[in-house]
Amino acid sequence: MRAAVAAAMSTFLYTLLGLAAGSSLHCAERRDISPCSCRAQEPGQPLKVACERVAGLSAVLAALAGRFPPETEVALRVAYSELHDLPAHTFQQLGLSIHTLMLNHDNLSALPEEAFSGLGRTEYLSLADNVLTLVPRAALRHMPRLRTLDLGRGAVAALHHGDLQDLPELQHLVLAGNALARLDAQSLPPALRHLHLGRNRLSALNGTLRGLSQLEWLFVNGNQLAQLDGELPAECAQLLLLHAASNRLRRLPAELRACAQLESLFAQGNELEALGGALQRARRLRRLHLSHNRIAQVSEDEFQELEALEELQLGHNRLRELNGSLLPLRALRCLNLTHNRFERFSLREILGLRRLFVIDLSANNISALAGHVAQNVVDAETRVVELRLEHNRLRALDGALMGLHGLQRLNLSHNLLEQIMPDDLIGLEGLRVLDISFNRLKTLEETSKTFLPSLEGLFASNNLLTSLQQDFHGLPTLCWADLANNQIETIGRELAAKTRCRIHGVLGTLRIYLYENPVRCDTNLIETVVAMEANFTKLYGLAPCVAENLTTSVAA
Ligand SMILES: *[C@@H]1O[C@H](CO)[C@@H](O)[C@H](O)[C@H]1NC(C)=O
Ligand SMILES: *[C@@H]1O[C@H](CO)[C@@H](O)[C@H](O)[C@H]1NC(C)=O
Ligand SMILES: *[C@@H]1O[C@H](CO)[C@@H](O)[C@H](O)[C@H]1NC(C)=O
Ligand SMILES: *[C@@H]1O[C@H](CO)[C@@H](O)[C@H](O)[C@H]1NC(C)=O
Ligand SMILES: *[C@@H]1O[C@H](CO)[C@@H](O)[C@H](O)[C@H]1NC(C)=O
Ligand SMILES: *[C@@H]1O[C@H](CO)[C@@H](O)[C@H](O)[C@H]1NC(C)=O
Ligand SMILES: *[C@@H]1O[C@H](CO)[C@@H](O)[C@H](O)[C@H]1NC(C)=O
Ligand SMILES: CC(=O)N[C@H]1CO[C@H](CO)[C@@H](O)[C@@H]1O
What we know:
Elements: H1 2-17, H2 30-33, E1 36-39, E2 47-52, H3 57-64, E3 73-79, E4 97-104, E5 124-126, H4 137-140, E6 148-150, E7 158-159, E8 172-174, E9 182-183, E10 194-196, E11 217-219, E12 241-243, E13 264-266, E14 287-289, E15 311-313, E16 334-336, E17 344-346, E18 358-360, E19 368-370, H5 373-376, E20 386-388, E21 409-411, E22 433-435, E23 457-459, E24 467-468, E25 480-482, E26 490-491, E27 502-503, E28 506-507, E29 510-513, H6 523-534, E30 537-540, H7 545-555
Parallel strand pairs: 2-3, 3-4, 4-5, 5-6, 6-8, 7-9, 8-10, 10-11, 11-12, 12-13, 13-14, 14-15, 15-16, 16-18, 17-19, 18-20, 20-21, 21-22, 22-23, 23-25, 24-26, 25-29, 29-30
Antiparallel strand pairs: 1-2, 27-28
Helix pairs in contact: 6-7
């Protein structure tokens, strides 16, 4: 989940910050412009010139002046430098056409009024990673064409009315990671499309977004917002993404119903107790992250029109029931319900969700699974590939998984399973990994009557198994069996007689892990080990018994 958010964030920031650079123009010789460097890439893009750890703007001027044809279009970055001589010099003196200017990690706490004079064509300015406490309004007045302004990770505490008023074309504004606690009314330019106010100290948005009818991406995550009621743009028809995670939201704003284009909503880490129908009509919504809230109920029609939803993250909430609410989610691929309060789960809740790929029901309190798909619907063609049921209270499977034909990974670890019946896993032709570790299984004998033609990995450590005989006879392609921490005393020689490890058609060796078992160390065992090795099966964890005896036995 976090990865997804991070990916969305970085895509966004990439759009803003990841400028394509280069030019059909050639760079000056590197030694000529030291300590700066130059990179040319795609034609038609500005030359990328970077200077690091320079002693002042004068040093930049000395390095670059006269090295390029006049008015060459550049993206200039001056970073990790001291620009104490900014009042004495200006960027205009470089004689270049600065399309992009990035002054990062330069310990800037303020900018002189004339710093940017002559930069009337600059479209992109980054002052991120400095210590500015105010928006440098007077300096920005020289940049009327600015489309992108990045003031991220600074110390700006307030956005005042008029701070950005001289930037009529501003579309992308990043103020993330400052100390913003105050936003004055009408402090944001109306043409904004992307706005990042994340990781500040905002407890209210003060109506500042109401007029932003072009807004597509809004980040207000990591603030102290208790509500967004009446704060979204009055016309939010363009809004594609709303990132409001890690606030104190107690509900979602009803106006979300008007944001017909919304594709992503991140509201995890809030105090939501219900959704109140705010998302009912979000027909375009694809990603919905609501984990780490207090959601206790969803009404039957909560997701009524969410026919495009692919990912639903509802982990770490207080749900006990789904109320059939998921059934309209025809495009759902990932359903995450980890750490809720389900005591039973019925597969009827996912009936007809043909795209569903992964279901995470781990860490609930599920003691019963119900409503297996095969029994209920003829057209129940599910594609669930991964089912996570670990950390629940299941004592039996009751055949509930029958019919999940596409299942490849099944995690049942940390439950209370005492036995698995042949019917329980019937029809799971595609199952590749089965985790039944940390249960109370005394034997796998019944399991061995099911045929699992694709199983590659069996995790059954930390159970109460006492003996291994024909337990793998239904597992023709097994490659990996972890049986550590059981009570296994005896291992039948024919255990793996019908198994030949195979992954994607490639033959390999079956590895069986037997650490921490009271395996009886006798001549039988030694012979079993030798016979198995001849059949591409290796037993691990029987040292010191085998290690010592094997040499004698083989030598004999
Ligand atoms: C940053 O600038 C301040 C003065 O504005 C100065 O006192 C401080 O030493 C500078 N820090 C670094 C790391 O250069
Ligand atoms: C809201 O805006 C008003 C006037 O524009 C300002 O005085 C006030 O401090 C702002 N409040 C917050 C919490 O930003
Ligand atoms: C199920 O949905 C109905 C309305 O559709 C609602 O009244 C009821 O409280 C919901 N039940 C649960 C357990 O969420
Ligand atoms: C479900 O969400 C939790 C965090 O809320 C995450 O750790 C877990 O990996 C997710 N499961 C899946 C299958 O994505
Ligand atoms: C788990 O479910 C059982 C009933 O199956 C109930 O007695 C118990 O209180 C539940 N535990 C939690 C933590 O909800
Ligand atoms: C099953 O879940 C447990 C607990 O989350 C985890 O440690 C284990 O690695 C999972 N098994 C597999 C095969 O992924
Ligand atoms: C070894 O493989 C052969 C042929 O598949 C089989 O007949 C025999 O029982 C196997 N022996 C052991 C110890 O697995
Ligand atoms: C059959 C056999 O040789 N068993 C011996 C294997 O080694 C252990 C010591 O590790 C002896 O106790 C067994 O008698």
